[in-house]
Amino acid sequence: MLLQTGPAQAQPVMALSDANPIMDARTSGLMWIDASGQASIEQIAGGSKAGAAFVPPAADTIHSLGPQAALWLHYRFARSSGSRQSWLLAFPLPLLDLVTVYQRTSATGGWTSQTAGDTLAVSSWPEPGRYGQFELNLPNDGVHDVYVRIQHQTEVSIPVQVSTRSSLAQRLQLEYLAIGVVFGALVLLIVACAVQSWVYRDKAYGWYAVYASIMALVVAAWTGVAGHLLWSNFSAWNNMAQGCLAILGGGSALLVVHHLCGAGSRHRWFERLAYWTGAAGVPLALLYLVLERGLGVRLISAYLVAVVVMGISRAYMTWRRQDVVGFWVLAAFVPLGLVTLMTVTSILGLFSASWLSQYGLMAALAIEVPLLLVALNMRSRERHAVEAREQAMSSQDALTGLLAAHLFHDRFKQVVGRAQRYREPAAVVYIELVNYRYIKKTWGTAVAEQSLLRSVIKLRRILRDVNTVGRIEEARFGLILEGVSSRAPVTDLAARLIAAGLMPLKGLKPEVVLQFHVAGVLFSERMGSHEEIAAALADLLHSMAARTRRPIRFLEPELTHPMPLATDSGFDGADDSGPQAPQAVAAADTPHAAHAPLRAVKSHSNR
Q1: For residues 83 and 75, is the Cβ–Cβ distance under 8 A?
Q2: Which among 160, 164, 170, 189 has the fewest CB atoms less than 10 Å away?
């Protein structure tokens, strides 16, 4: 059966007018599917191809061509009177595999062809861009026949537009402007997350920057920007990039959702399943590179549907357990999931491609990525708060918030070392809550711990911020006062603390007063190792009676050693008489020796 000229003659001629610069040409031509894919333009145009019966197509026709069949389209164009614009035939579908446009030359009457599609390097296209576009060589008068041969292995609805060069250029500029805004926001977000990860040593922001980079590449591949600007010379990767990056993007999105939602007490099996499904994105992306295209498309569709279902379910489960992060993840993932499902159904040929299926992914990412960053910030603050509490537990006392005992003794050693080397004045004071055990025995642990907290509050009120305070035992505190060279400041602080402890707190039940004992040492009076001074201060506190009238005491200064007797003085050191008697009398007449028994009696009576 030869090609019938009837349909071609009955086919209306599409008049191109400058007043209508953009026209939809899907229903303005005729179509025929070459099942073998072997027909040539000469056979089609000459009517010698048997079975080539062109019919009018529907506007939303979805074609299932497979790896061999080819779709032929026939258009007839004519300039309107007064039209001076250059006209282009465009196929605004970046995923289209291969499209060839045949036009008759006016000189020889033969046919010239131009080819574009993502199976070819974009740099070899007649009009490099995001999708195929071809200039129409329209004569000034008469009808211009154009044949189009299209190959695409999966189900597809093919948009066809005829527009003037100026209008198409303006539309492309607007499209690139919108894409540029989205990409600019994504790049800014990627850089900010990378910098934040480096500054705060937080790997979560680094992984989120990786995820945002993958999603940016997904958008670039699906909109044709990457094929035009990034890998315009690599035809094989240009054909595989959309599917491979879609799998990686889906897997990384599910892993981000899994990380943000955290671990719950229920549905552990589902959480593990979601994690391993997201981790499977890398091997599945590699598998897609070697699969047959139809099988690969089904793999992408099934995987993305599973990602959407699991991601939305994980976010909803997190929200249900009163975690506000789940709300933000759900708000971010639902638009992306809906657009992904729409794109999958478009790839499977369940409905025709539209602007929403092509640019909806870009709009959904513009919503999803910032909202997920909000969720990441909230989760990161929670984690940092936990880490800060862990660090505080290792450096601070859990009950009082004072410096831990080991860190206090480290600073104690440093102060002693500086005092020994540079003679820097300093004082160390031990303070003990004497009636702590009585309070604990009488009113219980809660009241005893409350008394410790009250003690810390009173200490904080009388001390400066530069002073070092630590809890060194259960009811004993240590205080380092640097720059103190006399006992007066220490005595003043201790007296104020003791007086504050004896003042009952208004409304406190039971009315518990705090009794403090204070033992101090001045490094200008006494020097020694850290262990020696710490043991001496502890012994001094132990030596105080519970009701002593001298609750503030200092370690005695170091005694000056007497000068040794000269060996050539003419006296015998073994003789108890002679010159040694006056020395003994003189020693007894000194104020210290005279009052030594009195101090001993007073010390015994004060215990």
Answers
A1: no
A2: 170
